[in-house]
Amino acid sequence: MVWIPRFLQPRDSVSPAEVEQGMRHLLFDGACSQVMGSLTGGAFLVAFALMLGASNFVIGILAAAGPLSQVLQIPAIVLVDRTGLRKLLVVVNSFISRLFLLAVAFVPWFVEPRYRVPVLFAGLISYFGLGTLSGCAFNSWMRDFVPQEIQGRYFGKRLAVATAVGAGLTLLAGFGVEVAKHFGAETQYLYSALFVVGASFGLFGIIFLVRVPEPRLPRHEPRGLRHVLMEPLREPNFRQLVIFLGAWNFAINLAAPFFAVYMLVRLELSMGVVLTLSVASQLVNVLFFRLWGRLADRFSNKSVLGLSGLLFVLTISLWPFLTLPERHALTIPLLILIHVLAGISTAGVNLCSSTIALKIAPQGRATAYLAMNALVNGIAATVAPIIAGLTADLLADRQLTLSLRWMTRSTETTHVDLPTLDLVGLDFVFVGSAILGLYAMHRLLSVREEGEASKTVVLGELQGEVRRALRHVSNVAGLRSLYTFPFARLEDLLRRRSRGGRGGQAPGSSERPNEPK
Fold first, then answer.
1. In this structure, what are the phi and psi dihedrals at residue 424, rounded to the nearest 5 degrees?
2. Which has the higher per-residue pLDDT, 177 or 215?
3. What confidence score (pLDDT) does residue 494 get?
4. Using CA atoms, how far apart are residues 440 and 310, in angstroms rounded to an integer?
């Protein structure tokens, strides 16, 4: 029998005081993980890959590396089910995976140029693969550790703290890169340094995970792999949730991996500007995480998802208007608006898409449910960016233009020729993502969750919360009026949809039949 340190063993009981202390340690772990993700992902990873010679298709492949690793949820289910040692699996796999991330930092130093992109991919797939084994055990652990009645508020707080810390360091790192480039530093080596710092934070964060107690899994007879995998899909409501989240992740991952590419290549913005916008969006995230968390605990995760999801689809649909076909006077203001709305909406989507799965999964048997959800989401998120990258490259020299023309028919003299839409390359991908996002929101209507309320009710509460928050920020009438956009527009849309719902019920009515880490 393998000896296991006492601090990594599960406990028969965990006191309320230990739960409280453990949740504090999870806040620090979340902050360290966010710093790691911020400095080794997103715009930094895209820029690093571009420096190493990656194309749009390769960017799509790299974006698919993380989701592709979700196939390892299957052996992860077996490991958790057979051993019951969730904390041990999290700590060991997290430690090894972050060592691979640290190794990726040295690709420009020790790998020949023609092998750099393949080696980068190999390092990332190893990092994500071991992280998947860790994430499966972590989700099951958190389902039994954090009290269900405060999951929305707690994970909202955890995400807010983590995002705030990550945003500050991201902004600092971004401008550090710009200053170093100004003095002639090699760009690819600067990104290597960021990977070293990010991986170091990730390794340091494991210390906090070790201090979080693990409740013991209920004992049961060993089950066959087929039974374990099929059990979540036999439950009708969880099956509908998996369909919704799979469709949603496919739709979103068509567009999201290419936002940074679009700004760096198509709009020709500097890394400093891109990161400033990203940080601004994250700061809005921080303001709205706890707000969405309170609403989710008061009403339901489904109700919050219905509203925040529609808002995020709206932000995706705005990207093609940034060029007509080139940058225009409204490009930067519209880009700022997109990032603000994305910050508001992704706070609700990221929080509730994970906690709704935690809530619906049965306590003590959550491992297979959450792993199956992650597996389906991973497959969807793997395929989507690859398809998007291929589509963007194939349609790079295709253009669809719609314009309004005011002219005199008798003389055929054009007085005004106003472009209204101009799609090129990635623009087609963004349009397709928005359409599929609307379909995913339709699938959400089939999911049932206890305490769900109509989107109109949640919208009214959100308006009230934002109004109260702005009163503490400023007395300027113009600032206060911000909360009415785009919520007032969405309210009209939601009311129209409610009138068209089946049986006369509102789409979010209770009468209608991604790891927090």
1. -145, 135
2. 215
3. 43
4. 10
Q: Computed over its alpha carbons, how large is the radius of gyration of the chain?
A: 23
Domain borders along the chain are 16-394
CA distance 512 to 510: 5
CATH, domain 16-394, list 1.20.1300.10, 3.30.565.10, 3.40.50.11270, 1.20.1250.20: 1.20.1250.20
Q: Is the pLDDT of residue 516 over 50?
A: no
Q: Which residues pair with 417 in a beta bridge?
A: 405
Give the chain's mean pLDDT.
Answer: 80
pLDDT at 221 exceeding the cut of 90? no
Instruction: State pLDDT tens for residues 42-70.
Output: 778 888 888 888 887 787 788 778 777 87
Can you list the alpha helix ranges (DSSP code H) found in 183-300? 187-210, 225-234, 236-255, 259-261, 271-298
**Residues of 456-475 as b/e, b for ≥16 C-beta within 10 angstroms?**
bbbbebbeebbeeebeeeee
Contact call for residues 416 and 319 (beta carbons, < 8 A):
no
Kindly state the tokens that stand for 324: 């007509």
- Record the tokens describing residue 476, joined without a space: 């300027």
- Dihedral in degrees, nearest 10, Cα atoms 272, 276, 282, 288: -170
Residue 413: helix, strand or coil by DSSP? strand
Alpha-carbon gap, residue 349 to 126, rounded angstroms:
28
Which carries the bigger pLDDT value, residue 203 or residue 462? 203
Q: Which has more confidence, 36 or 503? A: 36
**Half-sphere exposure in the Cβ direction for 400 (13 Å, CA):** 11
Residues 403-418 have pLDDT tens digits of: 777 777 666 666 676 7
Peptide bond into 232 cis (omega under 30): no
Q: Hey, how many other C-beta atoms are within 10 angstroms of the C-beta on 107? A: 22
The DSSP call for residue 402 is E
Q: Are 146 and 155 in contact (CB under 8 A)?
A: yes
Check residue 481 and give its pLDDT.
41
Residue 455 scores a pLDDT above 70: no
**Would you call the peptide bond into 213 cis, given omega within 30 degrees of 0 as the criterion?**
no
pLDDT band for position 288 (cuts 50, 70, 90):
confident
| Residue 107 · residue 44 · CB < 8 Å | no
Residues near 481 by beta carbon (within 8 Å), at least 6 away in sequence: none
pLDDT at 203 over 90: yes
Q: Could you write out the DSSP letters of every residue in 64-88?
A: HHHHHGGGGHHHHHHHHHHH--HHH
CA distances from 422 to 129, 319, 363, 399, 437 (A): 40, 11, 50, 7, 21
Nearest to 85 by CA among 206, 217, 204: 217
**Residue 474, helix vs strand vs coil:** coil
